[in-house]
Amino acid sequence: MSEANEGKTLWLDLGLLVLLAVLAGLSLLAGRVWIPLNHLGDANDPRWLIVTELRIPRTLLGILVGGALGLCGATLQGYTRNPLADPGVLGVSSMAAFGAVLTLYLPLTAATWLMPVFGMAGAGVGVAILLLLGAPSGEAVTFLLAGVILNTIASAGVALALSLAPNPWAASEIMTWLMGSLTDRSILDVRAITPFVLIGGAILLTTGRSLDALTLGETGARALGISLRRTQILVAVGVGLACGAATSVTGMIGFVGLITPHLLRPFIGARPSRLLIPSALAGASLLLAADILVRVTPGANEVRLGVAMAALGGPFFLFLLISNRRRLA
């Protein structure tokens, strides 16, 4: 990497860190009840409870989940050499959602810690299936096909749980949870997923050299001494831990991993390793900004974050498809 490119990436990272810090501060203040800046930290103000019990966990979750999704998206786009790849493409998110939905179906919600545990267990099963179905030689095409199969199975399981829900309350809870949200999450949820997100993210950051080599194709990567099977395992385990843990607590929130790498490529180029850290920071910023918007949007009920991201990501996805079609024409 040239010195100029290193400097550009460093400045971009610093700018994203500043943006993330500003959004995190705004996230503590914004909502149906606005907290005046001069009252932030005032333990005698009853509104401080809103900050400590609701908004601090919500802000931390937004950073963790958005960062995980952004990093997973950049990694998968680099690994598959497909600009339309998304963390949901491997089916790990769907398996995590299926595991979490089981706690609502059975029901096991009396113990709040069971939902993230079941969700992460579902993600773990998904990773194991991916590695079993993936080609021993590590080809990305077989890996993606295994992900499609896993996605289909998990989606069918969620639909079955929804259709066989024992009562209307359980069905409503499943539907609401599947929409994705940071609402009513506690610091216990933050503690539950933080180790898994950090370990998964660290694993994905080690794949940078392999992702750069894969831009030359699988044959070129092998010629450079890259083990495709090892890279496949690292990607599957990293995405499984980070994305699976995030989904197990917040529900399905899509398009963050798809959008963030595309927003950054005009600034730092298409080299996969250079996109990883900026995508994590941009993903966290994007999710926090979207969460702030859904909180301040007028209405009787708060718009679910997953619905808001789908409304934003759908047109963006269509734009990418049209752009790729014109480029190939």
Task: Report what the structure shows.
This protein is mainly alpha-helical and 329 residues long. It has one domain: ABC transporter involved in vitamin B12 uptake, BtuC, CATH 1.10.3470.10. It is 75% helix and 0% strand. It is built from 13 helices and no strands. The chain has helices spanning 3-29, 48-80, 92-105, 114-133, 140-163, 168-178, 187-205, 208-214, 218-223, 228-250, 256-268, 272-296, 305-328. The longest helix has 33 residues, at 48-80. It is globular. The protein starts with a helix and ends with a helix. The mean pLDDT is 85.
What is shown here, in short?
The chain is an all-alpha fold.
Layout: helices, strands, pairs:
Elements (H helix, E strand, L loop, with lengths): L2 H27 L18 H33 L11 H14 L8 H20 L6 H24 L4 H11 L8 H19 L2 H7 L3 H6 L4 H23 L5 H13 L3 H25 L8 H24 L1
Helix pairs in contact: 1-2, 1-12, 2-7, 2-10, 2-11, 2-12, 3-4, 3-5, 3-6, 3-10, 4-5, 4-10, 7-10, 8-12, 11-12
